[in-house]
Amino acid sequence: MAQAVDEEEAREPRLPVVVHASDEHRLGLKPVTRRVWAPAGERTVAPGHHRFKRLHVTAFVAPATGETVWYLSYGLSKPFLERLLADFAREVGAGTRCRAVVMLDNAGWHTQPNLTVPEGVRLVYLPPYTPELQPAETLWPLVDEPVVNRYSANLDELERVVE
Question: What's the structural domain count of the chain?
């Protein structure tokens, strides 16, 4: 990562280099349950109905500041990632106000051949099977919190809760 930042600084010395880590998290209509406290003698209730429709949350987090750019979607693919990277580049001003180095895992849609990467964005891949190195992984318990032990009738309702 440090080498990529140094190379980007040398490539365009007048622009600052910002580092972001990006990852995806899946939330669905299958309930997220956790243990809860209850008065002695009372049963806890966590309503749920297992269904397998999903909402995907993608985050680009700047590890140095915690500043995060969030996106919601109903699926993941190479064309979607290309649009997402373009939106992210516009949002942070990559290419005009800064150069962005984005740390990614090796998910299939991240490593597709001929992936179109916007001007001002450089992708750096983590070693395989190393989620402990991914700073964005720490966001997912926070994203799950509003939906824990809660029933959502459909994806629109789940999306309202997550937003």
Answer: 1
Q: Which residues contact 135 (CB under 8 A, 6 or more apart)?
A: 21, 61, 63, 103
User: Is 0.85 surpassed by the pTM of this model?
Assistant: no
Collapsed DSSP state (helix, strand, coil) of residue 50: coil
pLDDT at 135 (0 to 100): 93
Per residue, the 3-state secondary structure of 124-152, as one string, reads: EECCCCCHHHCHHHHHHHHHHHHHECCCC
Each residue of 39-65: pLDDT tens digit?
899 888 777 777 888 899 999 999 999
> Which residue range(s) make up the domain with 123?
2-162
Mean pLDDT of 94-98: 93
Which structure tokens are listed for 113? 């051949």
Q: What is the dihedral angle through the alpha carbons of 59, 158, 26, 123, rounded to the nearest 10 degrees?
A: -20
CATH of the domain at 148: 3.30.420.10
Tell me the three state secondary structure of residue 118: coil
